[in-house]
Write a structure and sequence with these properties.
single chain; 143 residues; mainly alpha; Serine Threonine Protein Phosphatase 5, Tetratricopeptide repeat
Length: 143
């Protein structure tokens, strides 16, 4: 399971290299958003995912419908273990730029992982279950 997660994160990190160059934007926005993306990519390569996420979110504030930035945000969330947030970012990215091949590829890999990772809903306890020895309903653990 951990190897699969690492493979997904590594695959996403590779996508960062391909997505490092920003999409054309108005001249006033290009330098700021572009520098945020570049810095975010550098932080992701170093494994500093919180900082990478912060930078990508700053770039997204300037380009709210940029599918490549949304992809980078989703990969950052994955690396941080925030899978629900990653799913939402991928979905927003698909809506913004369904033609983006890297985004669709990452989303597809993520869905495969997420469906196997997402825990099944827990069933409520039944009256036939035996209570724990201490009466709290929890197993005692040596610690």
């Amino acid at each position: 399971m951990r190897q699969r997660l690492r493979a997904i994160i590594f695959g996403g990190a590779i996508a960062f290299a391909a997505l490092g160059s920003p999409a054309p934007a108005p001249a006033a926005q290009q330098p700021q958003a572009g520098s945020q993306i570049e810095f975010g990519v550098d932080m992701a390569r170093r494994g500093l995912w919180n900082e990478a996420l912060f930078r990508f979110e700053r770039a997204l504030a300037e380009r709210p419908s940029d599918a490549r930035i949304l992809n980078n945000i989703a990969v950052s969330y994955e690396a941080l273990g925030l899978f629900e947030e990653a799913l939402e970012a991928y979905r927003k990215g698909i809506e913004a730029g369904a033609a983006n091949r890297e985004l669709r590829s990452n989303y597809s890999r993520f869905l495969e992982f997420y469906q196997s990772f997402k825990p099944a809903e827990e069933e409520p306890a039944t009256a036939t279950e035996e209570p724990s020895r201490d009466g709290t309903g929890e197993e005692a653990r040596d610690g």
